[in-house]
């Protein structure tokens, strides 16, 4: 019998197309390194507090299952949006959680998530040190938004960027095919509350046979409705067909989100974030009224974070790598850290996994630097594109069954 | 020099992911059958009337280009939404158009399109007979909506259905991954003004590892808001996570589109069709208010007709086949007809191309038969699924260049 005990792994926050590739990396590496059992929290820490977990050996039976897992979007284990209270506010909750970890003989706790999840890792690692618990706590970065500090980029971002760029190319072809001597404005709405990485990625559609979007508005830059209308009017008079990409998080100078003007933004999640939707629809309606031409708002919506069928091979492989690196780290005694991706070289692009103290990461949002946006604040620069391009390279074709991508799905009967 | 003269081909109406595969079929077959030149109308009949056309030999240089064309979404030549007037209302326009055809030494005119385009073929064929012009006129079916009569199905439908089903699977995974002990309603809005073929195709997501949507509302069935709310409420209380697919064209008993309730449906196109958008957003907002839970509206929007990257091989091949069959037909003297697809056998699925008098097709919309919808009017039957399943089979992977699907694009400098 192994001298090592067990690992538990969870997924948290908004899903990505490759979050399960990190899970696969954790599982495979834990097995290779001789950990006894690999448990999965079902719906993250929130589920774990309800003792919802599975032994992953009951779910993953072969290398084929691992490959299928890597091609499965959304959190295989189920995710949660659960904010850990401060330790002094609710010590009982911490005691309960560590009680469960002790019962399951957990040696290491790995959490795949974004900013809020790294905050969880920080608090749990601190609590363990404070109370003398032996468990190690390691964070694995994940978010399509690419807004985590320190890491060169986050797993999930490259695939979302690839899907967005590919879909932008297709939508542009569609718009051009239909407009003949007629004005036509298309507004694309892209995810990213405060960080414009994904919205900027629409510029990747600019290729040898496609002009890409005409204007790109990131949430980092205050949105000026008058300037916007003036700019679109100029373009539509010149070229008839205009395609604009906007972030769901663009804000007016008075601090209101543009989507709030349409009555959207009402729903507030557990972290106090407003649900942003309807920016493109609002702007499309507004421009139709102002300019009297045909407009269409298109939201890529949750497709941009769940389109595993258009995942980037680079992204899938890096997601797997950081999962594995977390296991290696805890196995070597690290705790309270997050795995980061370091860009080793540009040409050819190579990357490696590093470690960073989670105390210095949590809750710091990385936004697009001002110098990577043009002077007018309506497009990204070549530097931005050079940064993103390597991350969308390579494909990871889905396993097609009866004409549709197949996924690995949690067998609920085996839960808990 | 060839004894045969020239062919001209155009594309009309809303694009599909495979409309260019039909164009490729026309081009390749015309060359094989010894036609001299193959012209393309740029933006259909409307462009042709402005003498906008290209010699396709300036655009397609190799079999590789033909393969790339088959993988290019939207109308390569540009489309139009142009309604031919009645002959007696505007004989000058007909004279002008036939003058251009004579000048270009056109022997046959092939039009790839939907109901409105078949009306164009009918009128032009009639006019030629009436005035003793020798040109032949042939229609090639195309529409994601699958609403053309007589043909078993239309090219474009299978790929749209495949994209919709694949995306529905991904969205369902996304929704399930995020909801833990919390009510969550997702409303998917699918294209199809009067015909629910595509909305019904969301049921294809029901596979061995996915339950598919819970409810499906087609435009063929009068939409009852009270019944709908009651049904969703029941389900959400039982299972928390509910996914509903609705057609953009669902209507209340009083004849209003649901999307009109939100202030949408204002834009009217050249054929007098209202632009329908906002059904899902409206219903999501309405349910959030009524049931007090998290909701999200997702429109697949133009992506469902332009996602060549998820095209069905069956569909691409059939689109190519009907393009070729049109050339064969005009070469053998047919006119005033539309190519149709005939289903030869179910298992294995095989199909062939036939011909049908366009006078008996034009402007007749084929909707989903009532018996292919369940008694409650909120799901499709097994018969519906058996009909659609063969049409989404097989893949046609895009040619990826620098991480993105590559397209063949009209070289504008060569345009007339």
Summarize the structure.
Two copies of one chain form a homodimer. With 416 residues, chain A is α/β, with parallel strands linked by helices. Helices cover 34% and strands 18% of the residues of chain A.
Radius of gyration of chain A: 22 Å
Low-pLDDT ranges of chain A: 264-269
Q: Biggest protein-protein interface?
A: A-B, 76 and 77 residues
Return the CATH class of the largest domain in chain A. Answer: Alpha Beta
The run of helices and strands of chain A is EHEHEHHEHEHEHEHEHEHHEEHEE
Shape of chain A: elongated
Tally of contiguous helical segments of chain A: 12
Q: Quaternary state, please?
A: homodimer
CATH topology name of the largest domain in chain A: Rossmann fold
Q: Can you put this structure into words, describing what you see?
A:
Two copies of one chain form a homodimer. Chain A has helices at 19-32, 44-49, 63-70, 91-103, 115-131, 157-178, 197-200, 225-239, 279-291, 303-306, 313-331, 382-388; strands at 6-11, 38-41, 53-55, 106-113, 136-141, 184-190, 215-217, 241-247, 294-299, 337-346, 349-357, 400-401, 404-405. Chain A is α/β, with parallel strands linked by helices and 416 residues long. Chain A has two domains: 6-143 and 308-363 and 394-414, Rossmann fold (3-Layer(aba) Sandwich), CATH 3.40.50; 157-306, Rossmann fold (3-Layer(aba) Sandwich). In chain A, the strands form three sheets. Chain A has a seven-stranded mixed β-sheet with strand order 3-2-1-4-5-10-11, sandwiched between helices. A four-stranded parallel β-sheet of chain A has the order 7-8-6-9, with helices on both faces. In chain A, strands 12-13 form a two-stranded antiparallel ribbon. In chain A, strand 7, helix 8 (225-239) and strand 8 (241-247) form a beta-alpha-beta unit. In chain A, helix 1 packs across helix 11 (313-331). Chains A and B meet through helix 2, helix 6, helix 9, strand 9 and helix 10 of A and helix 2, helix 6, helix 9, strand 9 and helix 10 of B.
């Amino acid at each position: 019998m192994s001298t090592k005990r067990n690992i538990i792994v969870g997924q948290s926050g908004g899903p990505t197309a490759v979050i399960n590739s990190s899970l696969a990396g954790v599982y495979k590496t834990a097995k290779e390194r001789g950990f006894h059992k690999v448990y999965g929290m079902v719906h993250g820490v929130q589920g774990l507090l309800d003792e919802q977990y599975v032994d992953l050996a009951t779910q993953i039976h072969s290398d084929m299952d691992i490959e299928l897992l890597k091609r499965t979007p959304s959190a295989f284990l189920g995710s949660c949006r659960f904010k850990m209270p401060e330790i002094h506010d609710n010590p009982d909750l911490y005691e309960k959680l560590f009680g469960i970890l002790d019962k399951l003989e957990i040696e290491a706790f790995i959490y795949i998530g974004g900013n809020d999840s790294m905050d969880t890792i920080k608090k749990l690692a601190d609590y363990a040190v404070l109370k003398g618990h032996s468990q190690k706590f390691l964070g694995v970065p994940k978010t399509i938004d690419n807004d985590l500090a320190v890491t060169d980029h986050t797993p999930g971002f490259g695939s979302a960027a690839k899907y967005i760029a590919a879909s932008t190319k297709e939508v542009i072809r569609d718009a051009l095919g239909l407009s003949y001597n007629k004005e036509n404005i298309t507004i694309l709405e892209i995810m990213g509350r405060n960080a414009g990485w994904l919205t900027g990625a629409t510029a990747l559609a600019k290729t040898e046979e496609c002009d890409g979007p005409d204007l790109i508005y990131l949430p980092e830059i205050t949105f000026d409705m008058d300037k916007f209308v003036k700019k679109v009017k100029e373009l539509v008079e010149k070229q008839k067909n205009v395609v604009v990409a906007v972030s769901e998080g663009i804000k007016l100078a008075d601090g209101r989100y543009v989507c709030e003007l349409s009555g959207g933004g009402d729903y507030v999640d557990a972290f106090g974030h407003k649900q942003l939707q309807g920016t493109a629809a609002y702007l499309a309606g507004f421009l139709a009224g102002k300019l009297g031409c045909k407009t269409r708002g298109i939201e890529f919506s949750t497709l941009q974070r769940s389109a595993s069928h258009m995942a980037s091979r680079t992204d899938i492989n890096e997601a797997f790598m950081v999962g594995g690196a977390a296991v290696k780290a805890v196995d070597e005694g690290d705790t309270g850290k997050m795995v980061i991706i370091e860009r080793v070289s540009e040409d050819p692009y190579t990357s490696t996994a590093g470690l960073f103290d989670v105390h210095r990461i949590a809750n710091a949002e990385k936004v697009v630097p001002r110098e990577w946006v043009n002077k007018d604040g309506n497009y990204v620069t070549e530097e931005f594109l050079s940064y993103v391009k390597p991350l969308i390279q390579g494909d990871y074709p889905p396993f097609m069954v009866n004409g549709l991508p197949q996924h690995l799905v949690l067998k609920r009967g085996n839960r808990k």
